[in-house]
Amino acid sequence: MPSKRDTASTTTSSGTARVAAHLKGTTTSMRSSIKGMALLAVSAVSAFCLAACGGSSDEPVTVASSYDCAKPDSSNPADITIVGMPILSNGALYLGEDKGFFAKHGLNAKISMVPSPPAAASAVVGGSADFAFGTTMGLLQAVEQGQDLRGVAPFAGIEPGFFDKMQAGEAGYETGVNALLVQEDSGITRPKQLEGKTVAVADPALSSLLTRARIKMDGGDPDKVKFVVMTGPDAYNAVIAGKVDAAQSFQPIIQGFEGKGLRNLSWLEVDVLHDGPTSIIISTSEFVRKHQDVVARFNCAIKEAAAYSNEHPEDIRAVTAREQKVDPATLKSALVPYFYTEIDVEGVQRIEDLMVDLGFLRKRLADDDVLVSVESDAEVS
User: Fold this and answer.
1) What's the average pLDDT block by block, 10 residues per block, for the chain (381 residues)?
2) Which residues form the SsuA/THI5-like domain (predicted)?
3) Is residue 32 one of the residues assigned to a domain?
4) Contact present, 282 and 124 (Cβ < 8 Å)
5) Residue 138's domain spans which residues?
6) How many domains does the chain fold into?
7) Is this structure's pTM higher than 0.85?
């Protein structure tokens, strides 16, 4: 998700993570098929939970630790495992290791990558990882399903104030990550005009949520739109070829879309969410209760990594290129996301409200059921 670009930047995917969701479709058959895809995507996590954790506790999960971020202590190091995804935002995890933030706070971090948020959540619930990258949307759904997952530390999202700066035309805030594209000569100039049309979305979760919300915001009825799920590249190519009327796709896939005869109706995540945390670090309540000091130390380290990453986007690009084994030049203009140094509770609630409104959640959840309160001196030193 976006943050201000430095002078070298244009835009690219910030790793907007994709997770399963209950989705309202346009017809009974469409609702059934897409909801089925969503449930399949989280079924592995649910299975692990039933076998390994037996559901979440009704009691709030808190961390009460005397550990002080301003007085780092590495004298008694602990081994931790972190699972992420091979996307740009997760470069901050590697910087936490490279720059010594984990070691500084007495953590020997082993970082590995998996291809999807459900796989990352499964690793945590199944006990093969202590912490994992998760999406805010995926965490909310997992908790509603009774899975033993909690948000334990802040991560990436849309920079506070990004929407207002985009509206003001401020340099560095001209574009977002997720676009809603139509052919220039289609006659479609507003999202509400997609009623009765076929729209490709990159997944049945966040991509669909943002697209549906934007159509509704413009006065349209998303239930009158036929949604089809394609990969980001396939959706982009489909709208170019005229196989669909519109497509949600994202950077860097869509770079140069104007030269392909396309028009962007909306930078979806900015127009819909304005700002806020689209991702979060997750763990289980069981792990948190048993390893309070480790969770406190982890918060200190991840917050320092976040602050550093915001100041050094070029390092995020470089470490991502290294870990993905790609030419660094391919990420030279990548839009690096904004990294939160505190969990933005109000931002989480905005996403939650949107999910309830569009049928992705049945009802609002108690904050204590979703987020861990870390009661320690967790300020970045």
Assistant:
1) 50 31 32 37 38 51 89 95 93 98 98 91 96 95 95 96 96 90 98 99 89 98 97 93 96 86 97 95 96 97 98 96 91 88 95 96 95 69 46
2) 92-153, 173-315
3) no
4) yes
5) 39-159+275-377
6) 2
7) no
